[in-house]
Amino acid sequence: MRTIESAIEIDAPPERVWEELIDFEEYVEWNPFIPRASGEARVGHRLTIKIEPPGAREFTFTPKVTVVEEPRRLAWLGRVGLPHLFDGRHSFHLEPLADGERTRFRQHEVFGGVLVPLLLREGAIQRGFDAMNAALKRRVERKAPVKA
């Protein structure tokens, strides 16, 4: 098993970050790592996700949503082929910071299966997570209401 993680602080409350995170149709406007996504953030539903890891081939898959804890956590399970060949358990965590007006946003994925050593491009995925986090921060902070 391999784990990849990336985190960033966003100057907006978790509810605001959550709105952008689950607005899959808008990913095309801002998300360099997942430029296409569709579906509904509901447990048991399948999403269609296209990832474009920097320096690696693009890939489209249909993960199943496993956790929705609005506005704190969204998770899915993606597979290539049969179970235990190449599985990815991806989660997004939104943690309110002490002031309640900022959020620590974290992506976390655990990869498992016999094909992981052959197929996983860790560096590309890490760069993709980092790029998505930075783009989400820019988008949310640009759209956040101005504080008085």
TrEMBL record:
Any Pfam family matching the protein: Polyketide_cyc2
CDD domains reported for this sequence: SRPBCC_4 (cd07822)
Cited InterPro entries: Polyketide_cyclase/dehydratase, START-like_dom_sf
Residues that span the membrane, as ranges: none
Organism domain of life: Archaea
Gene3D superfamilies assigned to the protein according to its UniProt record, in alphabetical order: 3.30.530.20
Protein name as catalogued: SRPBCC domain-containing protein
Species annotation: Natronoarchaeum mannanilyticum
Upper lineage: Archaea, Methanobacteriati, Methanobacteriota, Stenosarchaea group, Halobacteria
